[in-house]
Amino acid sequence: MWHLSFFFSLGSSGTKGFAATKINQDELNAYLSEVRMTQEELEEYLSYYDLTLNELKSAEELRETLGPAVTPETLQNLLKQYEMTEAELTELLMEYGELEEGDSIIDTFHFIYDIEDIIDLEMDYDEEEMEYDEEEISDLMDGLFTEIGLTDEELDRFMNHLCLSSKNLL
Fold first, then answer.
1. pLDDT of 106-150, one tens digit each?
2. 61 and 6 share one domain
3. Which of 29, 64, 82, 129 has its CA 20 to 30 A from that of 137?
4. Angle between the 72-81 and 112-128 helix axes, to the nearest 10 degrees?
5. How many CB atoms neighbour CB 18 within 10 A?
6. Distance (Å, rounded) from C-alpha 107 to C-alpha 31?
7. 36 within 8 A of 70, measured Cβ to Cβ
8. pLDDT, tens digit, 9 for 90 and up, residues 62-120
9. Which domain holds residue 96?
10. How far apart are CA 114 and CA 93, in angstroms?
């Protein structure tokens, strides 16, 4: 009995252990190679999203969760999708502090979704800065009121109520 516990303690001492995973280790190793990460780096990355490897059942589920790996091909597809050049994307990533001068997008990012999130964030800001004229606002409001099912009479009463309420505030 003593010998058995001695061997178990030898096997666990001095090695850096990883959390047990439900993912087949060969599958996981292939995935790690594909995304250019160590298991420790992947576990750290997942922790930012409050996930662990143990919560995921397969390398396929990892792919679905984290998105495609950044490769020259996936990067070109992303650039085409957003109608950007690599220089424009590089500039954007530098503005957001995600890339340093001279760094490569492919060497810095592991997953396309991370890059896409930054692009989408920037596009949302651009959309917020768009100006609308009165006719466009009216069309948007008409569409909204139609969508929620307000009749013209209900809309008139609602607008009158708003006008009265705003006068009472003054």
1. 999 999 999 999 999 888 755 555 566 777 777 777 777 788 888
2. yes
3. 82
4. 20
5. 14
6. 17
7. no
8. 999 999 999 999 999 999 999 999 999 999 999 999 999 999 999 999 999 999 999 99
9. 72-128
10. 11
User: Are 124 and 84 in the same domain?
Assistant: yes
Whether the Cβ atoms of residue 71 and residue 63 lie closer than 8 Å to each other: no
Task: Report how far residue 37's alpha carbon sits from residue 141's, in angstroms, rounded to the nearest whole number.
Answer: 49
Mean pLDDT of 26-47: 95
Total structural domains within the chain = 3
Length of the chain: 170
Residue for token pair 């949302």: 124
Tokens read off for 118? 């930054």
Q: Across-strand partners of 145?
A: none
Indicate yes or no: pTM above 0.85: no
Residue 166 corresponds to which amino acid? S
120 with 142, same domain: the answer is no
Question: Which residues make Cβ contacts (< 8 Å) with residue 75, sequence separation at least 6?
Answer: 86, 105, 106, 112, 115
